[in-house]
Amino acid sequence: MSGYQTDAARIQERGQRRAKQGLSRWAGRLGLSRFSGLYIWAGFILLFGILTPDTFLTSKTLTSVGSEQAITGILAIGVLFPLSAGVFDLSAAQNLGLAAVGSGWLMSQVHVSPLLAIALTLGFGALIGTANGFLVTIIGVNSFITTLGMTSVLLAIAEGIANGNYFGPFPNSFSNLTSGSPLGIPIVVIYLFVAAGVAWYVLEHTPVGRRLHACGANKEAARLTGVPTRRYIFLSFVACGVIASASGVLLSSQLGSVSQTIGPSYLLPAYAACFLGTTQLKPERFNVWGTMIALYLLATGVEGLQLVGAQLWVTDLFNGAALIGAVSIAVVSERRRAHVETAAPEPSESEVAKLEKPRTESTPVLPNQSRREESKDAVERETSTR
Amino acid sequence: MSSSRDAETLAAEALTLKGVSKRFRGQRALESVQLHVRAGEVHALLGVNGSGKSTLIKILAGYHAPEHGASAQLHGRGFTLGSAAAAAEGGLRFVHQDLGLIASLTVAENLTLGVGHGSLIWTSKRQDRRVAGKLLKELSLDIDPGLHVRQLSTAHQTMVAIVRALRGTVDKRTILVLDEPTAALPAHEVQQVFDIVRRIRRAGGSVIYVTHRLAEVQALCDRVTVLRDGQHIATREVAALTHDELVELVIGRALENLGQTQHQSSATTPVLGVETLSGDTVRDFSLTVGAGETVGITGLVGSGYEEVSGLIFGSRRRTGGEVRLAGAMIRGNSPREAIRAGIAFTPADRKGGGGMMGWTLRENLTLPRLVAAGPLRWMSPRNERLEARGWLERLEVRPLDPEASFSSLSGGNQQKVVLARWLRCNARVFIFDQPTVGVDLGARRGIYRSMAEVARSGAAVLMSSSEAEELCEVCDRVVVMRRGGVGAVLEGSELTAERVVAEGLVVA
């Protein structure tokens, strides 16, 4: 190979490298990985805004998406507690369903006051959480199985109570719980954001939250650093039970008439939001605001598709695909990060490492491929600096 | 067979590697390394972690491809490096450190897995067992093929893995590569692995024995190749080397005397008091550790020495006895109470129990004692970062970044973070549960140094270990356990490696 050719090749390669660096620098500046959800969200709004400007870009769409998702959002916040502690509560959605039916039944059939009905429902939610917690932490049953079974038990109770009937209408004081909209914001959306704020505070800025996350990160290591792991996992189920039944009460109030079939359909959107949330803001962690972004990102996508004229089944398809996609992204990015860390012995060791690092973070490359390229780059660099 | 190993076969080279280089992300892993393995010898590949041993083995196994300029010969014929098929074809057999056995299956199932059965549809247990029995017999091993792998001792598991790798046949073409086969073995089982290695040599096969344990090289191997920083340092006859010369080859300098622990009189104020402790296999174990004192606990597997530290800390269930800290009894039976009282614990399984791999250094550091302000228990990330940075500086952790991920640190630095975590809690008793398992020579020195520093600051240090030499170097006093209780307490001139081993073997 002549000198001219190698030079040309080198210049070309350097140009490509610089272009890649430029791209990754931009990606870094925009926080493309951590905030990707916001950009996709903006993309959705732009896309559907162009496709159906008359129906999509209206305040009606905004309030309907906002209030429809508030219940799912509160349920997702409840589910975040056990998920942070490393356990599943699949019964949360049916807990919501039972709370909706149960509170309706208490008011319309047993004729108790709304306040008492709410208190009893929340109490029962706590009881469900306690049962889950007991089975998982004291008996030692796998959380997935426990709460899967619990779902069926709760479904049976809901069916037993409702017996195929609809409950409703409810007293005004109960309906008023969800009907106001101060400052033009639906009150349920305000509930959601208050709940999110409190959950964010507890889960991400108190010792309780840190220890809860420790249980999820490595239960044995948490125990050996003095975290009473069983107690925390137990309490996470109770918290989830109460929050889930609270969202059921709100749903009952919002709908005004409830049947036994409510519930199961809330499971997937809530989990999709939580898992998609782990790719946002605080990567690889369950976090509240990431979940909120994911929730509204998914809802906007679904709403837009429906307005464009898609069939109803698109909702299920979209949420399911988003859940699988989100978890895949999380798994792949974790693996890639682990790879980057093991392959680079000492960060900040060499200039090469510094330059190459952003690239591996922003553009997916096969492990072997990247390694070979980089070693070549490194040799290049050394020869060119001499 | 061994008598027929005449000069001619000795000289014949089973495997020759020359000019093997490898870089990862610009970092040199191997630099023009050579390896000459004679037919019918046990050849040690020796070096500390990161010296390039595993990279070389992975190239040999075809997992990595070497850089241009490498050449290899197997039994006098050219051989392509970087191809798993060519390696298998040429008679290279590998047993990796994690063995790769399936614990829930039987020995027979593990041995016949993937070989293909007589019939495609029906797998016959009886036939599996017969085939497995034959394979085991070839190496005259007395292991019941019907047992589940998890029922076997670690040594027997290693043997099954070796049998599986060899597939029953050992001949002059066989080159068995054993990657640290004794890393997870208790001392008395090591001999069993040695036996099978010698048997393979007797049958004419060659063995490449990867290790960082010098004693094993001297006990077992014919020749040794030493790697350091990815470079070939030397290939020598083991018989012609003394222990000290070997150490010097491995670490590149003479080993400074580690036994500089100031042997303080055991009349220091007692900090940790353990009285008639029972639980698991431990019965009525009593011990006192004074301020600034380092006490070792050892014994055979099953003597209970592995369990004592967990029982004291409360991570294992105590069924009797009490633990006192500076005279005050620790109530309850959980790590939480022990930590509150001032006991620190570094578990043997660092990956599983030491730190949160995905967490930042800051989060790992503050977990046992979280500082929150006000009635609302708000934790300020900024204050946390500031405090964490101070600790990282104090213990010279690299990188000095509170937000770095724990998993990105080297083993030694991870150890420092874990140590900082406990220093921050003002721990007065430090329990090190088998701190040097799977740790190389260089990093060991770091661990010994930090243990010595902790002791010098006036804390009581308790360490469990299966290595007599290590205990003699580090500890003021060593408790040898037998059948769940204290067998012997050695200190001063009595504290020698031979004595520690001998006391463990006494049949009570």
Short description:
The complex is a heterodimer of chains A (386) and B (508). Chain A has helices at 3-30, 36-51, 53-56, 59-84, 92-108, 114-139, 143-162, 172-175, 187-205, 207-217, 219-224, 229-255, 264-277, 288-308, 313-343, 351-362, 367-385. Chain A is mostly helical and 386 residues long.
Characterization of the model:
The complex is a heterodimer of chains A (386) and B (508). Chain A has 386 residues and is mostly helical. Chain A has one domain (36-324): ABC transporter involved in vitamin B12 uptake, BtuC (Orthogonal Bundle), CATH 1.10.3470. Helices cover 78% and strands 0% of the residues of chain A. Chain A is built from 17 helices and no strands. Chain A has helices at residues 3-30, 36-51, 53-56, 59-84, 92-108, 114-139, 143-162, 172-175, 187-205, 207-217, 219-224, 229-255, 264-277, 288-308, 313-343, 351-362, 367-385. In chain A, helix 5 crosses helix 13 and helix 9 packs across helix 10 (207-217). Chain A is globular. The two termini of chain A are 20 Å apart. Mean pLDDT of chain A is 80; it is low at 1-6, 27-31 and 343-386. Chain B is α/β, with parallel strands linked by helices and 508 residues long. Chain B has 2 domains: 12-251, Rossmann fold (3-Layer(aba) Sandwich); 270-342 and 427-505, 3-Layer(aba) Sandwich (Rossmann fold). Chain B contains 18 helices and 20 strands. Chain B has helices at residues 7-11, 53-60, 84-89, 107-112, 125-138, 154-166, 187-202, 214-220, 243-251, 305-313, 335-341, 350-354, 361-366, 381-394, 411-424, 441-456, 468-474, 497-505, and strands spanning 13-24, 27-38, 42-46, 71-74, 77-78, 92-95, 175-179, 206-211, 223-228, 231-237, 270-279, 282-290, 294-299, 320-325, 328-329, 343-346, 429-433, 460-464, 477-482, 485-491. In chain B, strands 6-7-8-3-9-10 form a 6-stranded mixed β-sheet, with helices on both faces. The two termini of chain B are 41 Å apart. Residues 1-10 and 255-266 of chain B have low confidence and may be disordered. Chains A and B meet through helix 10, helix 11, helix 15, helix 16 and helix 17 of A and helix 11 and helix 12 of B.
